[in-house]
Amino acid sequence: MENVEKHILSTKELAIGYGSKVVAEHINFSLETGTLCGIVGANGIGKSTLLRTLGGFQSKLGGNIYLKGKTLENHSPSEMAQKLSVVLTEPPASKNLTVQELIALGRQPYTNWLGSLSSMDKDHIDQSINAFLLNDLRNAKCHELSDGQLQRVLIARAMAQDTPLILLDEPTTHLDLYHKVQILKLLQQLAHQNQKTILFTTHEIDLAIQLCDKTLILDGVNNPFGAPCELIEQHCFERLFPSEMIQFDAKTGTFKVNK
Amino acid sequence: MSHPRSYRLSFVLISVALCLAVVLNISSGSVSIPFSATLSGLLGKPLEVPSWEYILWDYRVPKALTALLVGGGLSLSGLLMQTLFRNPLAGPFVLGISSGASLGAALLLMGASFVSSFASLSFVGDVSLAIAASLGSFLVLAVVLIVAQRIRDTMALLIIGLMFGSITSALVSVLAYFTSAESLQRFIFWSFGSVGNLSSQQLSLLAGIVILGVLLCVLSIKALNAFLLGEHYAQSLGVSLKKSRLVIIAAAGLLAGGITAFAGPIVFIGLAVPHLTRQIFDTMEHRILVPAVFLYGAILMLLCDTLAQLPNSVNVLPINAITSLVGAPVVIWLLVRKRKMIF
Known about the structure:
The complex is a heterodimer of chains A (259) and B (343).
Chain A: H1 2-6, E1 9-18, E2 21-31, E3 36-40, H2 47-54, E4 62-67, E5 70-71, H3 77-83, E6 84-87, H4 99-104, H5 119-131, H6 147-160, E7 165-168, H7 177-193, E8 197-201, H8 205-211, E9 214-217, E10 225-226, H9 228-233, E11 246-249, E12 254-257
Parallel strand pairs in A: 3-8, 3-9, 6-7, 7-8
Antiparallel strand pairs in A: 1-2, 1-4, 4-5, 9-10, 11-12
Helix pairs in contact in A: 5-6, 6-7
Chain B: H1 8-27, H2 35-42, H3 50-84, H4 97-115, H5 126-150, H6 154-178, H7 181-192, H8 200-219, H9 221-227, H10 231-236, H11 241-263, H12 269-280, H13 286-308, H14 319-338
Helix pairs in contact in B: 1-3, 1-13, 3-8, 3-11, 3-12, 3-13, 4-5, 4-6, 4-7, 4-11, 5-6, 5-11, 8-11, 12-13, 12-14, 13-14
């Protein structure tokens, strides 16, 4: 039990899916404070479903999810909001919000009934803005931002929510290599310096191997979980895709196209 | 969010504009009363002509108050719907909410006489009219919202709203076909829209409904701001989706339904005013938008009513004609100028 308490997020024999259709099962992992963890897997294997289930947006089909040792279902909406923040693939509904307004919304779990910001809230907002290099964009509207900038704003909002756990659904899609690395570097920094536990889904397996502390490989059957080097030694990445087209090179930690 | 202080000047200006609009509205009418006399009358001084006093206090002041409540309330209802549906084109009229209120009112005004032609219309009281219209708008709002959960496409949602509008107006036509001339006339006049002719009892009931709607709206400000990010984000911020959605719908339905019951289906105010307001108050923060939209709507409605009053003439134009003439070009102008209305 003590072991469970120490971990921010852990799952036990978790099964996910829609209605009666199981997408993936036997998902077991647990994350300690200050860990950056990537979820990798083929398209349609249930990465986003897993993230939505962990975020409480859809119900699990079996097993258990523990947030700081307490099951996810036993959390009230406001308790959840102070433990877990999310960055989703869907853009914000209103693109007319300014960067600062959007990030300030992250403070909602702590503000009064009208949403007035205290000086502590403002400090958190300023810290997030500075950490994600958004100072020059403070008053820009979201529809004026590039994809990379908007992604940074959304992550800064999650940081301002000041939760021990942050879930991100494909934070690097639609970005070029430079901005992918920038986002992942910032996430790594957030995890290690601010002691946040960060879990994100991604298709950038080589980048995840280089930057993450832990990796969850979702294959729907065994779902191996561990440090990237351990998983490479156990040949877990080789089984990720059918081998006739691409092959994993354990020396460099990247996939190579078969010639 | 951005500092409310920076909008203080705008709020002062818009409040002054509201006072001016009220005075302008009161000083114009079929009987010409000098502007100075109107002012001194409003300040509580006795007037030279006794009939002026009667006109002023028993007709024009209640009418101005009604216009103020109707304009502010409808605009607020439009703001709530635009945020709830995350759609810049949502509004009480576009989504068929006003048609729902019309159906409720029609069922009461015409259906009652249709069911029992013996029963006099006297039992069709103000309260029952307000309830019937509100129920009608709640019904359509609820159906549109259920459909909105299934259909994410906003254009499809608007078309569905328009279709509901058609269905309800078709039902109204069927009712009209079978009803007596007397009740039909009553309904037709109601459907032209009017902010005059409210008894003090009706006015206080309307005020009560609008105040209740505004209160529910103020209680929802935090949730409305969270909804700007989308429903999933709102949920992750600790907003109870079901409860907040219910309160917002109740407020929007109460405002649109209650107002439509007393003033008739008034078009375009609910749709256009939130956008016009954002031309001055360039923010999405509902703590600022809610009061600003109410004030702006009140001003616009007072001005439309003043125009409808045709200075020094006995004729009064239907208020709906004026709000359409003012509102429709505004929406076109916004669309052309901004290419698309960014919500």
